[in-house]
């Protein structure tokens, strides 16, 4: 009997905790405000995605090229050695463009959608802030 009462109490607490956010979000003014912000948020998502993706592609391509060149030169003679960096950069330039293009497209679209909806037209929605969430 004691287990049944305890189980029933746990079920009631769990069901009340599920319904609590619904009861708290029943403010009519909040719904109107969120509805009025929808066109602005959609505009922020579109602008953040269209303008932020090329920015993220350029930033990630540059970062990938520098990272790959320094890692490749380290394995040959050291990143301070000019000829080693020159030799490695012949191969890392195309690789950096491909890797940076893929990563930049991902981060540009992600920032455009996520940050463009949360904070429309914020510089981070245009991929001008941190690209990787750390």
From TrEMBL:
The keyword Signal applies. Residues 1-24 form the signal peptide. Keywords: Signal. The keyword Signal applies. This is Uncharacterized protein. It comes from Candidatus Obscuribacter phosphatis. The lineage of its organism: Bacteria, Bacillati, Candidatus Melainabacteria, Candidatus Obscuribacterales, Candidatus Obscuribacteraceae.
């Amino acid at each position: 009997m004691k287990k049944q009462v305890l189980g029933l109490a746990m079920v009631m607490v769990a069901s009340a905790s599920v319904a609590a956010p619904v009861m708290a979000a029943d403010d009519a003014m909040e719904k109107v405000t969120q509805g009025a912000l929808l066109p602005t948020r959609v505009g922020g998502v579109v602008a953040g995605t269209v303008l932020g993706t090329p920015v993220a592609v350029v930033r990630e391509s540059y970062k990938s090229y520098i990272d790959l060149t320094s890692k490749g030169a380290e394995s040959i003679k050291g990143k301070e050695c000019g000829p080693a960096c020159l030799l490695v950069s012949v191969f890392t330039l195309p690789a950096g463009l491909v890797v940076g293009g893929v990563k930049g497209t991902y981060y540009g679209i992600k920032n455009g959608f996520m940050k463009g909806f949360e904070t429309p037209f914020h510089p981070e929605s245009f991929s001008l802030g941190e690209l990787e969430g750390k």
